[in-house]
UniProtKB/TrEMBL annotation:
Belongs to the ABC transporter superfamily. Residues 3-231 form the ABC transporter domain. The keyword ATP-binding applies. CDD domains: ABC_DR_subfamily_A. InterPro entries: AAA+_ATPase, ABC_transporter-like_ATP-bd, Motility-assoc_ABC_GldA, P-loop_NTPase. Pfam families: ABC_tran (PF00005). It comes from the Bacteria. One of its GO terms (molecular function) is ATP binding. The keyword Secreted does not apply. SMART domains: AAA (SM00382). Keywords: ATP-binding, Nucleotide-binding, Transport. This is ABC-2 type transport system ATP-binding protein.
Length: 304
């Protein structure tokens, strides 16, 4: 297990910013850390990276304790903090050499700096001062410094803030690629981002974890029904469609389409294809509409 968090808490004065949270993350998994403003995401990330001591509870990264072995933890973690603090007066390569020095990378540094510059798409800007870079490129520098020592675990606090749609797609792709060989945890407010990149989502609200599941399972959770919009080439009756296992209600929104409501949209989709096959009906179009993560997020964080 790459990250093990057990009853971790952080109290600031009177406020319990993180309240006894527990979870485990495996290698090769990208986890989205979601929650409204002030939920405790950054505080949790700072504790896991070994930068902020917890008030109580424990956590290990690659088997090392975040309090008693924080130097070992930092060697194995690449961290992009929320505000992405950079030295604007430094040249890009100068900054990365400085970070390589902190990690005592020695003779390997130059080769690795070239590698991360290429990996993060910074090559066209490599001779500029950091202060002269656009926001998107500054963000790439933040990711490059997090990757420099080739850590096993990447902790990215809102990594795509300030990126334009093209840069967004590039950085998401980069994170996905990195996620194949590393453990990645990223915080974001953007639900589509989690849907685009993550295998799993942990939703935190008021310092407590209120959902932790694979994305597909989370998307099926919730109270509102999903539906399937289907169009057949041949006539079909509402009675026939109502008989398909898992269908809770049938409606006809217009002359050409049927709408099948269900709490198990994926299951009904399979059963519908089977129905068409057995009864010699041809499906002209099929669109399933399950709950978006955004709806689930709003429902869960509202309830608590
Ligand atoms: N150094 C601090 N001193 C006092 N309170 C703090 C400190 N850092 C954070 N907090 C409080 O702890 C709570 C959790 O903050 P945190 O930054 O972890 O939330 P977050 O989920 O990352 O929020 P956001 O999405 O807005 O970045 C907030 O109410 C915040 O005001």
């Amino acid at each position: 297990m790459s990250i093990q968090v057990s009853a971790l808490s952080k109290v600031y004065g009177e406020q319990r910013a993180v309240d006894a949270i527990s979870f485990e993350l495996k290698k090769g998994e990208i986890t989205g850390f979601l929650g409204p403003n002030g939920a405790g995401k950054s505080t949790t990330m700072k504790m896991i990276t070994g930068f902020l001591p917890p008030t109580s509870g424990t956590a290990t990264v690659c088997g090392f304790d975040i309090v008693t072995q924080s130097l070992d933890v930092r060697k194995r973690v690449g961290y992009l903090p929320e505000s992405n603090p950079l030295y604007y007066d430094m040249y890009l390569t100068e900054f990365l050499r400085f970070i390589a020095g902190i990690h005592r990378m020695g003779a390997n540094a130059s080769k690795r700096i070239d590698e991360v510059i290429s990996l993060t798409g910074l090559q066209p800007e490599r001779n500029k001062k950091i202060g002269a870079l656009s926001n998107g490129y500054k963000q790439r520098v933040g990711i490059a410094q997090a990757l420099l020592h080739d850590p096993e675990v990447l902790i990215l606090d809102e990594p795509t803030t300030g990126l334009d749609p093209n840069q967004l797609a590039d950085i998401r792709q980069l994170i996905k690629t990195l996620g194949a060989s590393k453990t990645v945890i990223l915080s974001t407010h953007i639900m589509q981002e989690v849907e685009a990149i993550c295998d799993r989502a942990i939703i935190i609200n008021k310092g407590k974890i209120i959902a932790d599941d694979r994305l597909s399972a989370l998307q099926q959770q919730g109270t509102a029904s999903g539906h399937i919009l289907v169009r057949f080439a041949e006539p079909v009756t509402a009675e026939e469609l109502a008989g398909i296992p898992g269908v809770t209600r049938v409606a006809a929104p217009d002359e050409q389409h049927w709408q099948l409501f269900s709490n198990e949209v994926d299951e009904v989709r399979k059963n519908l294809l089977q129905f068409a096959l057995i009864n010699n009906r041809n499906i002209l179009s099929l669109q399933s509409n399950s709950q978006s993560l955004e709806t689930i997020f709003r429902e869960l964080t509202k309830r608590v």
